[in-house]
């Protein structure tokens, strides 16, 4: 996993945010246009694949109720985030006809009731709990459908966050807050926080499962910055980056390459030189192993 | 182990669906209207999904049998292919499926009977041809790897037995051959194995049986009387490739009777340009996509001189064991079968 990973958590209400702010020890950094809390996912979390600590930024934004707020909050947060290795998670409460309050459920299908649009998030990360469809309504719903959660933001979250990350990394977890016996009217901020608090460890385990999906990324930053002294068009910069990436995959980015780059008089000559270097390489099987 | 089954509502009562679902009592079952809702959306990452694919059970609509590109043949007359399944249990880094599909989920079409109907229609068209019509299976999946679940060969072999003017070629790397060795040989079925040197297999054919195990399966099939084919495809150019492929060829022909091999094919590493770009973006750190390649006519393949050298070397090794007429070479400038 790269060190540049980010977990973007989007919740509708401050009371839904509170247990997560406490768990991740997040700090408030902004309150307009949305409350934004930032921290890092480290400490108790061990990345088993690398035998090291997870190092990633956690952003939590409070969108406010409804689809429009959710869409805008996702777009706003995306604008602040490096999109390369980002996980998006919607945490919140939802109603369900039959499920007991406080059940935690991963969403496997979301339907926007207003337009009938349906989306199936890719369920790649491991999840051992319940799973359900989610229907998103424009307003609070106490007329529960059969066998589906109901909320007011889920569909907008998947639609908006799905613009910035692949489906495997855009997920929603809902905690059942009301059902046909325990009505939505009885809910208050304190009760909502109480419903979510016991599940913070499970939510965190799921975050870790999502992070474990991410492959290591090539870090070409140092080499990319070495051509600051050269005038480059956008196309030349892309060609240069592509060549660097190929050379890195063949384990050929070394001090000699760095010297060639630093001594280059023009990007055209540099690209030509790197192409020649690449043309003479025959890969070894070691460079083809994952 | 599969976590998730997506089931098209139209096939939920199909006996084959129910048999497969019963094998996975712990998997969550999600009912869908059309497989395309799960398989086709753009914002999916094949590499991420490959870590834990789901199984989609669906019905194949429209055309089920397609013509192969004109240059692709192994001795038959008309050449067709069909895919009862999309995506493979294995994770071979060179596989074009990574570039073709957005989803790595396994998509199994359970309406085998409809495939057979289409195959019979094509067989009828070619009933007076001099050469048999050849039907390839295993280009969008491995024909046998999922056999315990799909029972694909179990169903299709008896059907082809009734079509003597046709040949079914099963393309595989799998050792799941029980459904073949436990029954009588079907003379118009060829079991074709993709083979790579063990060094290549262990580096880039992730999850596939070792070369030795594939050879064991081939030996059993040949001893049992099945027609077999050998596919050195794609040949992977790398340091020491000559030593590795020479060893492989010697290994193959020391264990198999060359006179009883149906055909041997050689193919280079080649991909449509769009697939190549997708695959390189999925695996930027992988050396396979970085050296020795060139782009011609919207295809990415080894540079002509590299490919020529590779084909010359490997075919020379092979010719010391088998007759030239059994060897088919597919240069990259011919169309790739998709």
Description:
The complex is a heterodimer of chains A (290) and B (338). Chain A is an alpha/beta fold and 290 residues long. Helix content of chain A is 33%, strand content 24%. Chain A contains nine helices and twelve strands. Chain A has a five-stranded mixed β-barrel with strand order 7-11-10-8-12. In chain A, strands 4-5 form a two-stranded antiparallel sheet. In chain A, β2 and β3 (35-41) form a beta hairpin. The two termini of chain A are 14 Å apart. Chain B is built from 13 helices and 18 strands. Chain B has helices spanning 15-22, 36-39, 46-49, 97-100, 112-125, 147-150, 152-161, 178-181, 198-204, 211-224, 241-255, 273-282, 304-319; strands at 4-8, 28-32, 55-58, 65-67, 79-82, 85-86, 91-92, 106-109, 133-137, 166-172, 189-194, 205-206, 227-235, 261-268, 270-272, 293-296, 299-302, 327-330. In chain B, α11 packs parallel to α13 (304-319). Chain B starts with a strand and ends in an 8-residue tail after the last strand. The relative contact order of chain B is 0.12. The model of chain B has no long low-confidence stretch (mean pLDDT 94). The A-B interface holds A 108-109, 118-120, 122-127, 131, 162-163, 165-170, 213-218, 245-251, 278, 281-290 and B 3-4, 6, 28, 30, 32, 37-38, 41, 43-45, 47-49, 51-54, 93, 103, 105, 199-200, 203-204, 206, 236-240, 283-292.
Write a concise synopsis of the structure shown:
The complex is a heterodimer of chains A (290) and B (338). Chain A contains nine helices and twelve strands. Chain A is of the alpha/beta class.
